Recover the amino acids of this structure.
């Protein structure tokens, strides 16, 4: 084709004639310009060449509180990983800003999305019944699951009825919540992830570290290690195209012989009974269209009333997530293919209980775009696995404690409270306010460690008395100015790591105001 | 009590207090210029797809000839081109795994994003749009709608058992942000602007 002439491909030493050679890494547009769609970086972000062992996630010990700070320390102690991770996510965040600013009605869309979600969540029983009726009328088998275990049992039953032994699936945070892969492994069902990032994580026996980019904490060297170990690739070849192609060629036969396919759900349309998935790889479409048995797992909060509402959410989702105007594939599954069965499993798993939590129920509006994670300075510098939970980053801080207050009691403290998460959220969840509200709840219920309780108590006492607050601010500011570096950047102060402390203003606003305005008699 | 009834009962009991009406979604002004074909092509180009104008009436497929001549197996779902794999005779989706190029016609295109829509009727075998190595899409310029909001006014979403918007080829950048076409599905997507044949009256 004509455009090929602009960017002739090197065709020797590649796995497939269509695969780019290492020396020619970027996919290019018809004009020869570097493309940046999907989750592509706007510029090459390559981890430095020396090998550095990948920092692993938080140590999970049963029900004991996760020590996020400890895992974050280890992530920071791997500077190559930390830098690549930080840069990569900040790049995605910047792409998000450009995409959002390209739409004059962006803020109006956020408000609409928030209102549609709020309305639906407060009428969820009605819309779920409508969805169920529509899906049944479309010839779909609808199931209801109280929790993750219920979901896994229902899917296993479906598989057993069909004699199915293998299942290909697309990425689904809901199935992560349910511990789906572990459950199926214990019941001799072969589960194969088909999203590249999720497949990398499955082969490395790690959880996804990000809701949209599951392996974003790994460098290409890490991926080369994992694939050499599990797929038999050349351990010294860390070319991203070679690695991705190796995955494609080893996964394709598994897709072709799979007995069943499963997808998650980005949006479920009540009026039509449709499940909508948004992917860049087309792997949800492979999972849904190739195997003879088709299953869709749906968190009940994914419901939206009408097809026309997709016109709001689809415009927000990928722009917020990756700065891309739309995902490569937006797929609408409504009924079975001739001669096959389609099942939909509606999963509660704590959502209906969360609806009763006055301060926290609006977290159910979340559409899992990951924008709050990309913008969070703590997340970018500690990695998603440091949270030791299905959901990491700011949205994780407010969702995880609803699953287990004790285990995730420390997470709401892993925040600088800068509020950036709230500002980028496409459905206007007041994330940082909910983080603060969780701190109060956990303190009141004695779910937080003694050291932090002492700090909270002191902070409460200071914040409730303006004069004491002013005195404390003055001390803190002057301390920052005069303390030697080792006092600020010491190991006890986790957030001093990899950040320069702000220059303390010589004078607080209140002191300045008193000096310059009050003496002029302008204060009433 | 069944799981269904228990969940619905909890949702009723736990409904947050307050009025939360469903907002009306206004019709937003289009963000694209009046030449929808050009806008469509430009935006699809940024998503990794390509657009070609059809060749002469005698050889409308001339712009994609090199792609087609290099293909051993061509599955066509359109009357304008005779492939060598009959999709109507396929009994299972895995049979199209060896297809090099699939040719299908889009129901409509979206100028704002460069997307094209297919239903199960357009694809004949849904899987061919993913298992094929390359996809060639016929699109009538008259079938382009202005934006995503207009797209979701179309009847296909309430009627088709499967409807999908493709915006460029299968893509991933899960490894260090390096963009790769052909992650799991097609390695390229080319839209050929070719009006539908007028049906005989």
């Amino acid at each position: 084709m004509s455009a090929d002439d602009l960017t002739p491909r090197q065709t020797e030493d590649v796995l497939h004639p269509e695969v780019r050679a290492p020396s020619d890494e970027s996919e290019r547009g018809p004009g020869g310009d570097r493309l940046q769609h999907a989750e592509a970086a706007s510029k090459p972000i390559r981890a430095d060449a020396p090998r550095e062992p990948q920092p692993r996630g938080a140590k999970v010990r049963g029900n004991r509180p996760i020590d996020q700070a400890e895992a974050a320390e280890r992530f920071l102690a791997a500077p190559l990983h930390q830098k690549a991770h930080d840069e990569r996510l900040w790049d995605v965040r910047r792409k998000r800003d450009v995409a959002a600013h390209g739409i004059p009605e962006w803020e109006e869309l956020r408000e609409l999305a928030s209102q549609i979600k709020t309305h639906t969540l407060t009428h969820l029983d009605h819309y779920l019944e409508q969805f169920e009726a529509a899906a049944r009328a479309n010839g779909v088998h609808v199931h209801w699951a109280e929790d993750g275990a219920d979901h896994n049992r229902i899917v296993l039953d479906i598989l057993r009825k069909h004699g199915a032994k293998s299942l290909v699936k697309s990425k689904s945070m809901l199935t992560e919540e349910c511990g789906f892969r572990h459950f199926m492994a214990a019941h001799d069902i072969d589960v194969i992830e088909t999203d590249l990032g999720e497949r990398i994580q499955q082969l490395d026996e790690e959880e996804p570290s990000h809701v949209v980019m599951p392996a974003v904490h790994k460098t290409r060297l890490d991926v080369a290690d994992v694939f050499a170990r599990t797929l038999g690739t050349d351990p010294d070849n860390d070319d991203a195209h070679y690695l991705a192609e190796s995955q494609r060629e080893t996964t394709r036969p598994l897709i072709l012989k799979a007995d069943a396919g499963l997808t998650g759900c980005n949006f479920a349309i009540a009026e039509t009974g449709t499940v909508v998935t948004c992917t860049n790889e087309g792997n949800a479409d492979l999972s849904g269209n190739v195997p003879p048995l088709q299953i869709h797992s749906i968190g009940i909060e994914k419901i939206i009333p009408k097809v026309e509402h997709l016109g709001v959410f689809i415009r927000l989702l990928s722009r917020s997530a990756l700065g891309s105007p739309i995902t490569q594939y937006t797929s609408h599954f409504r009924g079975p293919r001739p001669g096959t069965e389609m099942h939909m499993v509606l999963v509660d798993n704590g959502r209906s209980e969360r609806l009763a939590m006055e301060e926290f129920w609006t977290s159910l509006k979340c559409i899992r775009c990951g924008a709050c994670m990309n913008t969070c300075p703590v997340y970018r510098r500690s990695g998603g696995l440091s949270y030791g939970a299905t959901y990491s980053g700011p949205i994780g801080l407010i969702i995880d404690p609803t699953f287990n207050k004790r285990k995730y009691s420390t997470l709401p403290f892993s925040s600088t409270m800068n509020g950036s998460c709230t500002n980028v959220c496409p459905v206007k969840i007041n994330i940082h306010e909910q983080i603060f509200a969780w701190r109060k709840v956990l303190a009141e219920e004695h779910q937080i460690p003694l050291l932090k309780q002492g700090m909270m108590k002191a902070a409460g006492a200071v914040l409730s008395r303006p004069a004491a607050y002013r005195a404390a601010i003055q001390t803190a500011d002057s301390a920052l100015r005069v303390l030697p570096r080792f006092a600020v950047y010491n190991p006890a102060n986790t957030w001093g790591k990899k950040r320069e402390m702000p220059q303390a203003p010589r004078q607080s606003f209140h002191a300045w105001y008193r000096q310059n305005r009050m003496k002029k008699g302008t204060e009433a | 009590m069944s799981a269904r009834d228990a969940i619905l009962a909890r949702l009723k009991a736990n409904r947050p207090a307050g009025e939360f009406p469903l907002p009306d979604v206004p019709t937003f002004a289009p963000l694209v210029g009046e030449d929808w074909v050009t806008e469509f092509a430009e935006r699809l180009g940024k998503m990794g797809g390509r657009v070609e104008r059809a060749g002469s009436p005698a050889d409308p497929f001339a712009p994609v000839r090199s792609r087609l001549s290099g293909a051993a197996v061509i599955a066509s779902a359109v009357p304008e081109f005779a492939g060598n794999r009959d999709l109507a005779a396929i009994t299972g989706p895995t049979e199209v795994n060896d297809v090099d190029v699939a040719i299908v016609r889009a129901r409509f295109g979206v100028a704002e994003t460069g997307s094209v829509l297919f239903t199960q009727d357009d694809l004949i075998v849904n899987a061919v749009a993913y298992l094929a190595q390359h996809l060639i899409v016929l699109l009538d310029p008259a079938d382009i709608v202005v934006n995503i909001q207009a797209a979701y006014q179309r009847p296909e979403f309430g009627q088709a058992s499967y409807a999908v918007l493709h915006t460029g080829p299968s893509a991933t950048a899960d490894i260090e942000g390096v963009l790769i076409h052909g992650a799991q599905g097609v390695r390229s997507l080319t839209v050929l602007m070719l009006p539908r044949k007028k049906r005989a009256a």
Observations:
- Chain A touches chain B through 121 residues (CB under 8 Å).
- Chain A has 22 helices and ten strands.
- The longest helix of chain A spans residues 79-101.
